[in-house]
Amino acid sequence: MEFFGEALALGIDAVIVGICFKMYLRTWNAIKLIEEMPEVLDVGPQLEQLVAKQPEKQLPYVAVRGSVKALGSPLHSLGAPDVPAVIQKLTCKEHVVSRGAMGFWADQERTLQETVNSVPFALTGHKGTRVEVVDALAAEVLDLETVVDHFEPSAPGLVDHLWGFFTGVRQRGLQNTEDVLREGALLTGVGTLTLVPSDPKGDLHLVPPADGAPFFLTAMSLHTLARHLDREKRMYKWLAVTFGAVGLILVGAAARRWWRSAERRAADAAAREATEVERRERRRRARSARDRDNVPEALLCVVCRLRERELVLLPCGHVCLCEECGEAVGPRCPVCRAQIEKRTAAYVA
Ligand SMILES: [Zn+2]
Ligand SMILES: [Zn+2]
After folding, report:
1. Residue 13 C-alpha to ligand 2 middle, in angstroms?
2. Helix segments in the chain, DSSP class H
3. Mean pLDDT, the chain cut into blocks of 10 residues (349 residues total)
4. How remote is the CA of residue 293 from the centroid of ligand 1, in Å?
5. Which of 47, 164, 184, 185 is most buried, by CB atoms within 10 Å?
6. Which ligand places an atom closest to the C-alpha of 327?
7. What is the pLDDT of residues 273-319, one digit of tens each?
8. Any idea which ligand is nearest the CA of 332?
């Protein structure tokens, strides 16, 4: 059981280390890609010409900047109805104070509901040029602006207080937030820019890169984005190192205990062996001291009829064998055929 718990802990730890390390490499790679990237390209007629010149009619990883515009009718923010938006995220969180295992009360929040609405949109530039953003919700960094952040404290009655005392959870209130990507916001999109001549709405599409490189939709400059990712990278590194150390400690503790128990088993076996050797030696001396011919008929081993009976078989209790025959005989008592569970020395005095 203990072993199972340890193996489980170690397995979980290894998975966490793996994920952190993978995320570390991913952000490291993203930073490298961003740093190698040429300047941000503004949406405009020259952008279309640039993509059209490429042999595959696409730029695999670029940053383009333009202002957000819905391709149909925009969404309307609930909290600020005059703000037209293209992405809207509504979150309802419950804030509670709960008593932890140590008996302290601590603030906690849990998301009760999260709804994301979006409409197709494009990044637009001058002369009506635009780049349609495809699959915006897949972006790793998606900068939204908070337009509503409302906290409604709960007003607990006496019953709620008592309930909270006994259950260890007291409600503090509900927080409703609304985050939007508003129309007209200046946004930088990092992804694959591709020319789609069949699309009647817009020829250029910005799509998540097919090779798994990260897709960003951000209000930050590339430099700030790289710094933001660098912080993330350092956090993943720290987590990977920390959980890695925890794993090493777990392995070390298990190895130490295994080693100890192996040592103990070896010592026990050696002690048993020593006792056994001593017992045989004593027996041998006792035998040689006795005159063999004087062993009464009734005390002779039933198998060899040569040596004295020296063992008691358990659980049947028969004293019918000498040491040698006791080791050679099958799993059953030669007298009563009962299963032999144990053989132990018998001293007939
Ligand atoms: Zn015998
Ligand atoms: Zn028996």
Report:
1. 55
2. 2-36, 45-53, 158-167, 222-289, 323-328
3. 79 92 91 84 83 82 90 84 89 85 78 90 84 87 87 81 79 89 90 78 81 87 89 93 92 91 95 86 71 75 87 91 86 91 81
4. 15
5. 47
6. 1
7. 998 888 778 777 776 666 566 778 888 889 988 888 888 999 999 99
8. 2
Ligand 2 centroid to residue 338 C-alpha, Å: 6
Distance 322 CA to ligand 2 centre (A): 14
- Name the residue ranges covered by the structural domains of the chain: 1-40+221-289, 59-220, 292-345
CA–centroid distance, 342 to ligand 2, in Å, is 12
Both tokens of 7, joined, read: 């193996």
- Name the token pair of 110: 């849990």
Q: Calculate the CA 114 to chain-centre distance.
A: 24
Which ligand has the shortest distance to the CA of 341? 2
Q: How far is the CA of 333 from the centre of ligand 1 (A)?
A: 13
CA–CA gap between residue 86 and residue 76 (Å, rounded): 8
- DSSP string covering 216-228, please? EEESS-HHHHHHH
